[in-house]
Specification:
The complex is a heterodimer. By secondary structure, chain A is α+β, with helices and mostly antiparallel strands. In chain A, the strands form 2 sheets. In chain A, strands 1-2-5-4-3-12 form a 6-stranded antiparallel barrel. In chain A, strands 6-7-8-11-10-9 form a 6-stranded antiparallel beta barrel. Chain B is 77% helix and 0% strand. The two termini of chain B are 24 Å apart. Chain B is mainly alpha-helical. Chain B is globular. Chain B has a single domain, classed as Arp2/3 complex 21 kDa subunit ARPC3 (Orthogonal Bundle). Classes of the chains: A alpha+beta, B mainly alpha. The interface between A and B is large, with 51 and 55 residues.
């Protein structure tokens, strides 16, 4: 039987050729193959192990975090009282101006089980899915600000497309001046978040806060996205190139909140939001 | 059967570490290329056929974890596994210097190939070069240290009784 087999060198060469051919074919046609089911199965398979590793990693961090959170809760409670008063006043003023009231956000807590993508993570796996009411398109925020939006939903898990995915785009505005732009992630010449489409005539300063704008269908208005870090002129000289430092630090993503997306026009229940 | 189970176990552990503990480091710009490390170790231990198979399976799983470009890790790691497996018969596999050089070269090749896709080309070659070299300089010594600790813990070298193809051919 062994005599029918080719020599070891030839066999390994053929094997490598086969692997290289499959890999090249996948690279050429992979985007046309439905991968969401496979990724869902992988996420389901790894989720318990991810949790196990994270528990060990997080026990120590949780103690320190607990102390910090106690202090922060005290400060925030004071601030909430102040903001509540301001909110009541804001509501009254908007009412007197005939403006519609802001949409109240409901938050669903979820844990980040894993990040994918190097050198910059482009997606994350969350511990909440369809069973917890998470839907494709929901915004995901952390304590610091916007993280991304839900791209795929499985039964008990969801996959988040982070702001650092080059295919992600978010309509934003600069706080206080209201300058509008679209936030995109660029990988070349170096990974950076840029607020694009801002005319040269608009005034933007380093350090200003960037928020989601009311023009976005996906994201509620006013979510913090980051701060203006660098200003330059884009290659064609027509618009500004504004680099934004993200508010949510990817290296510290642990607990996030899923914000249910708005009911889009035409969808059932749209008139309720309107 | 034991080899197959070992292959799946090692691949699973590598992917798990990569997506949890190492992803936080990667977000800070320090990439420990655990995929290249385990492929090199497996290929050194078992030779080119097993090395390329392990690299391909591991790479394919890593590709499914990423959002785009299915097949890029699989191709690079299969080639790394094959190359290291071919060399393993002619090298002193237990020598830390040999391990360092192999890990450094494998990390460089894998990271350069994978990052070119992530960055959409070589326009940002300075960033790419910096990341690739740092990744190699972190992964290689760390890998040698891990191998030394495993040898110390188990009381024997991982590669001392390796029944690789090159020896079985003779």
């Amino acid at each position: 039987m062994g005599g029918f087999l080719p020599p070891a060198e030839r066999r390994s060469g053929v094997l490598l050729g086969l692997y290289a051919t499959i890999a090249l074919l996948l690279m050429l046609t992979g985007d046309r193959i439905p991968q969401s089911g496979l990724r869902g199965a992988g996420a389901w398979l790894f989720a318990p192990f991810d949790r196990l590793v994270l528990v060990v990693d997080r026990v120590g961090a949780a103690w320190r975090e607990n102390e910090r959170l106690h202090e922060r809760i005290t400060r925030l409670e004071l601030e909430v009282t102040r903001l509540h008063q301001a909110g009541v006043e804001n509501l009254r003023l908007r009412d007197s101006l005939g403006l519609p009231a802001y949409r109240t956000l409901t938050l669903r807590r979820a844990e980040v089980l894993a990040l994918a993508g190097e050198p910059v993570p482009t997606s994350a796996t969350l511990s909440a899915g369809a069973l917890q009411g998470v839907k494709v398109g929901d915004a995901v925020v952390s304590n610091d600000g916007l993280v991304g939006r839900v791209g795929e939903v499985y039964a008990g898990l969801a996959r988040v497309i982070l702001l650092s995915d080059p295919n992600s785009a978010v309509a934003c505005e600069v706080e206080s001046t209201g300058v509008q732009g679209v936030l995109r992630f660029f990988t070349s010449p170096r990974p950076q978040l840029l607020l694009t489409g801002v005319p040269m005539a608009d005034t933007v300063r380093v350090g200003q806060v960037v928020l989601t704008s009311g023009l976005s269908l996906r994201y509620p208005r006013g979510l913090p996205v980051g701060r203006v870090e660098r200003l330059a002129r884009d290659l064609n000289g027509l618009t500004r190139e504004i680099e934004v430092a993200p508010a949510a630090r990817r290296s510290r993503l642990r607990h996030v909140y899923v914000v249910p997306g708005p009911v889009l026009p035409g969808a059932p229940g749209a008139e309720v939001v309107r | 059967m034991r080899v197959f189970a070992g292959l799946l176990l090692l691949a699973g552990v590598a992917l798990l570490i990569r997506s949890t503990a190492l992803s936080e480091l990667a977000a800070r710009g320090v990439i420990v290329d655990v995929l290249a490390f385990v492929t090199v170790v497996w290929a050194l231990r078992w030779g080119e056929s097993q090395g390329s198979t392990f690299g391909f399976v591991l790479g394919l799983a890593a590709d499914l974890d990423a959002a785009h470009w299915l097949g890029r890790h699989a191709l690079a790691l299969a080639l790394v596994g094959y190359g290291v497996g071919r060399l393993s018969g002619a090298l002193v596999r237990g020598n830390p210097a040999t391990q360092f050089m192999l890990l450094f070269a494998a990390t460089l090749a894998h990271q350069a190939w994978a990052l070119v896709f992530e960055l959409g080309g070589v326009a940002g070659w300075r960033f790419l070069l910096g990341h690739v070299v740092v990744s190699g300089l972190v992964t290689a010594p760390l890998g040698v240290l891990v191998l030394a600790l495993v040898s110390l813990g188990s009381g024997r070298s991982l590669f001392s009784r390796a029944a690789i193809e090159t020896t079985s051919r003779t």
